[in-house]
C-alpha cells in the first residue's frame, strides 16, 4: 500500500487529484456567472488603474524617488495579479478538473508570484520608510542602482516562491498528503506558505507601528520650536500614512485566506474550507482594486497626474478622430476636383454639333 502511495501521477488530469482529496469545486451556474462578471469588471479596473500608476511615476519627475519607484513596482505586482485572476476565473469550477497538472501549476503559480511580489514590495517599502524616517527625511538616499537591484531581487524571490510547488514540493508522488484547496499541493507546503506570510504581516505591522510612533513623537517635539505648524507635506508622515493604509488593506483582504489555507494544511476536517474559497478570492481581488484608489486619495500629486494622463488620452483620441475626418474630407475633395467642369473649347464644339 505504501508503495502504491509513492507512485507518481504526473500524467493524470486534475480530476484524479480532486477525486482523491474529496474536494468539490462545483459552482452554481448563476453564482459562477456573477463571479465572472463582477471579477472581470474588477480585473479591467486593476489592469487600467495600475498601468496608470506606473505611467504616472514614469512621466512625473516629482515621483522619481525610491519610494515611488517601489510603489510603481507594487502596482506592477497588482497588474500581474489582475492577469492571474482573469486566468483563474475562466479556468475554475468544472473546468478545474479538465486542467493538466502543468496548467494547474501555471494557474496557481501566477497567483503565488503576484502575492509574493506584493508582500516583498511592502516589506522593502517598510525598510525604505524606516531608513528615511530615522534620518528624518521625506525620501531615503537609496540610489537608482540599489532600487533597481531591490526590484530585481523582489521579482526573483517571488518567481522562485511561485515555482516551489512545481519544483517538487507537491503531493504528486504522495497523494495522501494532498490538500483540499489545492489538490496537487501538499499540506506541509500550505502550512509553510501561510505561516511565512502571516509572520511577514506581523513583522511589517511592528515596523510601521514603530515608525509611526517615532514620527508622532518627533513631530510633537519639533512643534513648540517652530514658528507655525509643521508642513505635513514636507514630513515623512504623509507617505507613511499612505503605506500604512495600503498595508492595512492588504492584511485585511489576505489574512482570512491565509488562515483558511493554514487550516487546510493542518487537515482540519471539520472546517468547511471549500465553502469560503470563492468569496476569499473576490476579497483578494478587491485588494488589488483598492490600492490605486488609496494612492490617488492619499496623494494629491498622484491624483493630479492621473487626471493629466486621462486628459492626454482623451485629447489624443480626439486628435486622432480629427485627423481621420480631415483625411476623409481631403480625399473627397480630390475626387471632386478630378471631375472638373467642361472647358470652353468643349462647350464650343458641342454647340457646333448641335447647330449642324
UniProtKB/TrEMBL annotation:
<feature type="transmembrane region" description="Helical">
    <location>
        <begin position="239"/>
        <end position="259"/>
    </location>
</feature>
<feature type="transmembrane region" description="Helical">
    <location>
        <begin position="189"/>
        <end position="208"/>
    </location>
</feature>
<keyword id="KW-0297">G-protein coupled receptor</keyword>
<dbReference type="InterPro" id="IPR005385">
    <property type="entry name" value="LPA_rcpt_EDG7"/>
</dbReference>
<keyword id="KW-0472">Membrane</keyword>
<keyword id="KW-0812">Transmembrane</keyword>
<keyword id="KW-1003">Cell membrane</keyword>
<keyword id="KW-0807">Transducer</keyword>
<feature type="transmembrane region" description="Helical">
    <location>
        <begin position="33"/>
        <end position="58"/>
    </location>
</feature>
<feature type="domain" description="G-protein coupled receptors family 1 profile">
    <location>
        <begin position="49"/>
        <end position="295"/>
    </location>
</feature>
<feature type="transmembrane region" description="Helical">
    <location>
        <begin position="279"/>
        <end position="297"/>
    </location>
</feature>
<feature type="region of interest" description="Disordered">
    <location>
        <begin position="320"/>
        <end position="356"/>
    </location>
</feature>
<dbReference type="Pfam" id="PF00001">
    <property type="entry name" value="7tm_1"/>
</dbReference>
<dbReference type="InterPro" id="IPR017452">
    <property type="entry name" value="GPCR_Rhodpsn_7TM"/>
</dbReference>
<feature type="compositionally biased region" description="Basic and acidic residues">
    <location>
        <begin position="344"/>
        <end position="356"/>
    </location>
</feature>
<dbReference type="InterPro" id="IPR004065">
    <property type="entry name" value="LPA_rcpt"/>
</dbReference>
<feature type="transmembrane region" description="Helical">
    <location>
        <begin position="147"/>
        <end position="169"/>
    </location>
</feature>
<keyword id="KW-0325">Glycoprotein</keyword>
<dbReference type="InterPro" id="IPR000276">
    <property type="entry name" value="GPCR_Rhodpsn"/>
</dbReference>
<feature type="transmembrane region" description="Helical">
    <location>
        <begin position="70"/>
        <end position="90"/>
    </location>
</feature>
<keyword id="KW-1133">Transmembrane helix</keyword>
<comment type="similarity">
    <text>Belongs to the G-protein coupled receptor 1 family.</text>
</comment>
<keyword id="KW-0675">Receptor</keyword>
<dbReference type="GO" id="GO:0005886">
    <property type="term" value="C:plasma membrane"/>
</dbReference>
<protein>
    <submittedName>
        <fullName>Lysophosphatidic acid receptor 3</fullName>
    </submittedName>
</protein>
<feature type="compositionally biased region" description="Polar residues">
    <location>
        <begin position="323"/>
        <end position="343"/>
    </location>
</feature>
<dbReference type="GO" id="GO:0070915">
    <property type="term" value="F:lysophosphatidic acid receptor activity"/>
</dbReference>
<feature type="transmembrane region" description="Helical">
    <location>
        <begin position="110"/>
        <end position="127"/>
    </location>
</feature>
Amino acid at each position: 500500500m505504501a508503495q502504491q502511495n509513492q507512485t507518481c501521477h504526473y500524467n493524470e488530469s486534475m480530476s484524479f487529484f480532486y477525486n482523491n482529496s474529496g474536494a468539490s469545486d462545483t459552482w452554481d451556474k448563476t453564482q459562477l456567472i456573477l463571479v465572472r462578471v463582477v471579477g472581470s469588471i474588477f480585473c479591467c479596473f486593476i489592469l487600467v488603474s495600475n498601468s496608470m500608476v506606473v505611467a504616472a511615476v514614469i512621466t512625473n519627475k516629482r515621483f522619481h524617488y525610491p519610494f515611488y519607484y517601489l510603489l510603481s513596482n507594487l502596482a506592477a505586482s497588482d497588474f500581474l495579479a489582475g492577469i492571474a485572476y482573469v486566468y483563474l476565473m475562466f479556468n475554475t469550477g468544472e473546468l478545474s478538473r479538465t486542467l493538466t497538472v502543468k496548467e494547474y501549476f501555471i494557474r496557481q503559480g501566477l497567483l503565488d508570484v503576484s502575492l509574493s511580489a506584493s508582500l516583498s514590495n511592502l516589506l522593502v517599502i517598510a525598510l525604505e520608510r524606516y531608513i528615511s524616517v530615522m534620518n528624518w527625511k521625506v525620501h531615503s538616499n537609496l540610489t537608482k542602482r540599489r532600487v533597481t537591484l531591490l526590484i530585481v531581487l523582489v521579482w526573483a524571490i517571488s518567481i522562485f516562491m511561485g515555482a516551489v510547488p512545481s519544483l517538487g514540493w507537491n503531493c504528486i508522488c504522495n497523494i495522501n498528503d494532498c490538500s483540499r484547496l489545492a489538490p496537487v499541493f501538499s499540506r506541509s507546503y500550505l502550512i509553510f506558505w501561510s505561516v511565512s506570510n502571516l509572520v511577514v504581516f506581523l513583522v511589517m505591522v511592528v515596523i510601521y507601528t514603530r515608525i509611526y510612533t517615532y514620527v508622532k513623537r518627533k513631530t510633537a517635539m519639533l512643534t513648540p520650536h517652530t514658528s507655525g505648524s509643521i508642513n505635513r507635506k514636507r514630513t515623512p508622515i504623509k507617505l507613511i500614512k499612505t503605506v500604512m493604509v495600503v498595508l492595512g488593506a492588504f492584511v485585511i483582504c489576505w489574512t482570512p485566506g491565509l488562515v483558511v489555507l493554514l487550516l487546510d494544511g493542518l487537515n482540519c476536517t471539520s472546517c468547511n474550507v471549500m465553502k469560503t474559497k470563492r468569496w476569499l478570492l473576490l476579497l483578494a481581488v478587491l485588494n488589488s482594486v483598492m490600492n490605486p484608489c488609496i494612492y490617488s486619495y492619499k496623494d494629491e500629486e498622484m491624483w493630479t497626474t492621473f487626471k493629466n494622463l486621462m486628459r492626454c488620452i482623451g485629447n489624443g483620441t480626439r486628435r486622432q478622430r480629427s485627423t481621420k475626418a480631415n483625411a476623409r474630407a481631403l480625399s473627397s475633395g480630390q475626387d471632386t476636383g478630378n471631375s472638373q467642369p467642361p472647358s470652353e473649347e468643349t462647350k464650343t464644339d458641342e454647340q457646333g454639333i448641335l447647330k449642324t
